[in-house]
Design a protein that fits this description.
The protein has 182 residues and is an alpha/beta fold. It binds coenzyme A (COA). Coenzyme A (COA) binds next to β19. InterPro entries: Hexapep, LbH_gamma_CA-like, Transf_Hexapept/Carb_Anhydrase, Trimer_LpxA-like_sf.
Amino acid sequence: MFTSLRKYKGTAPKLGAKVYIDEACVLVGDIELGDDASVWPMVAARGDVNHIRIGKRTSIQDGTVLHVTRKTPAKPEGHPLLIGDDVTIGHKAMLHGCTVGNRVLIGMGAIILDGAVVSDDVILGAGSLVPPGKVLESGYLYVGSPVKQARPLTEAELAFLPQSALNYVILKDEYLAENQQA
Ligand SMILES: CC(C)(COP(=O)(O)OP(=O)(O)OC[C@H]1O[C@@H](n2cnc3c(N)ncnc32)[C@H](O)[C@@H]1OP(=O)(O)O)[C@@H](O)C(=O)NCCC(=O)NCCS
């Protein structure tokens, strides 16, 4: 049914329940998506030289690129890409070999490089760049290129993070229903 899902070395992406995969995205290889995750038009994700894991209710929005770094003798694990639950990845972001916790908002056009860690409950401003290996502390807004800690998140912003994920779960359910009618 999904032409967007392609094998690499015999491994195809694995989808949880009620996942929405837009027809105009490409997912290759060792990628797993949790229940209710969504992947929007023009996303390119390659789980070829390492794996990609995407948590429950997480949305990967239009034009985002996801990739990983290979395993080498110097770095036997390489850099997989690990994204937690209830994460909102804005349009045209680039995530490469990094780790993102739960209830995170990655702003549009942000770039996150190998080995960086975005802890739980963080907002990363639009257009920010997270250098390799940098760790972003839980509960803060980060902006800039390279990224800097801007301020603690407000209670309203902390409450918005899971709500943002839920908004996309509702939206992808509408898209799934539409496709079933077509
Ligand atoms: C950073 C953000 C959360 C706003 O935070 P805020 O604290 O309300 O910021 P303000 O709008 O009050 O601006 C405060 C300062 O930060 C600057 N600023 C705002 N967004 C910025 C960004 N993404 N990068 C760098 N600086 C930014 C403003 O210009 C302002 O600078 P000044 O004090 O020199 O005038 C918001 O601009 C943003 O980037 N949101 C991401 C939205 C997104 O991409 N969502 C995903 C799509 S679903």
